[in-house]
Design a protein that fits this description.
Blueprint (H helix, E strand, L loop, with lengths): L1 H13 L19 H15 L6 H8 L3 H4 L6 H13 L12 H18 L3 H7 L5 H16 L4 H20 L5 H7 L1 H12 L7 H10 L4 H41 L19
Helix pairs in contact: 2-5, 5-8, 6-8, 6-9, 6-13, 7-9, 8-9, 9-13, 11-12
């Protein structure tokens, strides 16, 4: 009996003398979802760059084991595509179809640039990955529609889309935090740069001395608009030239048809392509 009481006393001494309440709702980890995974991946890219995104690092940030991520995405490539498509979902693709085709393209271009500059690192990723997700496809459709309306042939419409899209991505790549942009945004640094350009040997760099201070300016919005206007003006000229060429071909075909099938004697000669007799 004495031994049993001693054993019971030892058990009592070994029990924790603390009351631990069940964890409340505020201490429970929120359920992991695909949306949560994609949002955190976007944060990593924006903060540390595309190269910092790995499944292991992302799992650590989310407080889960790497295997938990694979219940929501197949691999890192799919994760990147989901991030890209999610960002492109922020671009408003609705435009007034009564506007001229050039104005519709301009609106879309400015909207896309704004979204890309709000998410550092995404423009660079888009240059090497084309996700072809629902929002990526919607954006492509929005750009292609006005370009096709301009009268460009199918192949030239595709080339025009690539030209405009690559211009926007390339511009967004030199983001507000790039060395070049910071150099012209800071007034003191910009003035020092202009002084340096003016000091260059005029016999070797006559044009830089003359106009260099007009090249390195804090005019990012103006530069984007000017480049876009130049691209669209060229496409508009191409579309007009194509329309004129098509009209000339039609006229040539009408003349050739008239020469091949001359009017029958005694019947009135018909105006080419009109179906009406000449007078």
């Amino acid at each position: 009996m004495a031994q049993r009481r001693s054993a019971d006393a030892e058990d009592a001494d070994s029990r924790p003398l603390w009351f631990i309440s069940p964890a409340g709702e505020e201490h429970r980890r929120p359920a992991l979802t695909r949306e949560h995974v994609v949002a955190e991946a976007l944060t990593v890219i924006g903060t540390d760059g595309v190269d910092a995104l790995s499944m292991r690092a992302l799992a650590t940030r989310l407080g889960v084991v790497p295997g938990a991520l694979y219940r929501h995405v197949r691999n890192k490539e799919q994760l990147r595509d989901l991030v890209l498509d999610g960002v492109l979902a922020e671009v408003d693709c609705e435009v007034d179809h009564r506007l001229a085709w050039t104005e519709r393209v301009k609106l879309l271009a400015h909207r896309l640039r704004t979204v890309l500059e709000n998410h550092p690192g995404i423009a660079g990723l888009l240059k090497i990955r084309d996700p072809l997700g629902p929002h990526s496809l919607a954006l492509a459709e929005a750009f292609l529609a006005p370009l096709h309306t301009a009268g460009l042939p199918d192949r030239e419409t595709g080339l025009a889309f690539s030209l405009v899209y690559d211009y926007i991505l390339g511009f967004a790549l030199s983001g507000l935090n790039s060395v070049n942009e910071q150099r012209v945004q800071d007034t003191e640094t910009r003035n020092q740069l202009h002084t340096f350009l003016l000091s260059l040997p005029a016999d070797r760099f006559p044009t830089l001395v003359a106009v260099g201070e007009h090249v390195w300016l804090n005019n990012r919005d103006e530069r984007f608009a000017a480049g876009l206007d130049t691209l669209l003006a060229g496409l508009e000229t191409t579309a007009c030239a194509g329309a004129v060429a098509a009209g000339n071909r039609s006229a040539d075909q009408d003349r050739a048809a008239t020469q091949t099938h001359p009017a029958t004697p005694g019947r009135p000669k018909m105006l080419p392509g009109s179906g009406r007799p000449t007078r």
